Structure formats: C-alpha cells, structure tokens
Amino acid sequence: MPIRTCLVLPLALSLMAGSSAALAQAERRLAPVDQAASMPDFFSFRARLQAAVARHDTAAVLAALGKDVELSFGGERGVEGFKAMWKPEAAGSLLWDTLATALALGGSFDGQGRFMAPYVASTWPRGTDFHIAVAAVAPGVQVRAAASDAAPVVASLDFSILDTADQAGEAAGWTAVKLPSGQTGYVRSPLVRSPLDYRVGFSKVAGRWQIDYFIAGD
Q: Of 19, 71, 96, 210, which one is least surrounded by beta carbons within 10 A?
C-alpha cells in the first residue's frame, strides 16, 4: 500500500458508517492504545528515538528518517526538506516538543506491520468527524466555563471525544469544546488532540525501522 494511502486510510474510514454518529456524545470515548511493545525491535527503536528527541539530538533524528519521508500533503518530502521545514538546529525549533508529544501518545500497528503514532490518529473511531472533534488524552480533564484556570469547572473528561465549538472567546492555550448538554466549555489545549494533528508513521525497510512520514492535516 502506498504511503499516502496509509496516511489517509485510517482517517478516511471515519467517514464511513456515518449513521453510527447518532451515538450520544456522552458515550464517545477513545481509550489510549500503545501496541509498540508487541514488536520488541520497534519498541527499542522508538525508545532510542524518544531519548534522541529528549536530548535534541539532530543527527540521531535525521538518521531515523526514510530518505523520502513525507512532510506535508503539498509535496514536501525528504531529509533536506525536513531540515528546511523544522530547522532542528535553531533555538526555539518546534520539532522537539511536536515530535515528543506525538511519540508519547502511543499508537498501533496496521495489517502490514507499520506503526502509526499517536493513537488518537491510528484508532480514531469510524463515524466520528475528524475535522471537528478532539479527544481528551488524559483522565479527569477539567472543562471550564471560560478560558481561564480561575473559571468554574463545568465537566470532567475521561478520554472523551467532543466536538470543538465556535472559537470566539478562545484564548491562547485553550480549546473550546461543545459538551453533550450543548454548553460550550474550555479545555487546556495540551489535554485534547485532533486526529489531524501531527502523526508519525514507521515501517521496517531492509531490516531497519524508519520514519515514513511526519505530517499534519489531510
């Protein structure tokens, strides 16, 4: 299966069986999944990569990239493209936090033995619109009445999936969500994630694990 098909298929399947979206929002959950340990050599590879990311080891991260690594749906690809896009040597490069977060959120293997991280993308449920919904990535995520830590807590999310709400009134670092009651609440953005956010794909080529894509959007 071409890499692009691998990228799009798990999300495209979500558009099928649209009638299943009739399930109440209160019932929508996306439990964390991490299948990496089921393949020990990949588990070790990922652990080494995570350690490299933590120490901002540019050479180690570049060595993990496939030569044609996909970087966007606009055609950007390759190791040189990766360096141009992410500027890993620059102070304040967003690469390290972005990649670390994606890797920390588990993931799953497909039928061809390829791994996609994070689990929010690889296991997104069918019938749930990935363009408008986000998933809480922790238990006990507090939803507040306004985009402020001082605002009253109006709900608590345990790996729940909620639609995003009108962003009017959103503040930096907060995501507006629509509760099953119809009320709009606000969640700290790092505690929810869209399946269209950055994901990382891995495959084993000639006995070596590599990053096939590091991409966001659709």
A: 19
Q: How confident is the model at residue 25 (pLDDT cuts 50, 70, 90)?
A: very low
Digit-coded pLDDT (tens) for 45-82: 999 999 999 999 999 999 999 999 999 999 999 999 99
66: its two tokens? 């496939």
Q: Rounded distance, CA 16 to CA 193, Å?
A: 21
| Residue-level length of the chain | 218
Residues 50 and 118 in one domain: yes
Judge contact between 130 and 124, C-beta under 8 A: yes
Q: How many domains does the chain have?
A: 2
Both 91 and 179 in one domain: the answer is no
Task: Kindly tell me if the per-residue pLDDT of 15 is higher than 60.
Answer: no
Q: Are 98 and 216 in contact (CB under 8 A)?
A: no
Which residues form the domain of 166? 133-193
Would you state the torsion angle of the CA atoms of residues 14, 15, 18, 24, taken in this order, to the nearest 10 degrees? 40
Whole-prediction pTM: 0.86
Query: In the predicted model, what is the mean pLDDT of the chain?
Result: 90
Q: Are residues 91 and 12 in the same domain?
A: yes
Q: In terms of Cα–Cα distance, which of 51, 45, 47, 38 is closest to 66?
A: 45
CA dihedral for 164, 168, 169, 172, sign (positive or negative): positive
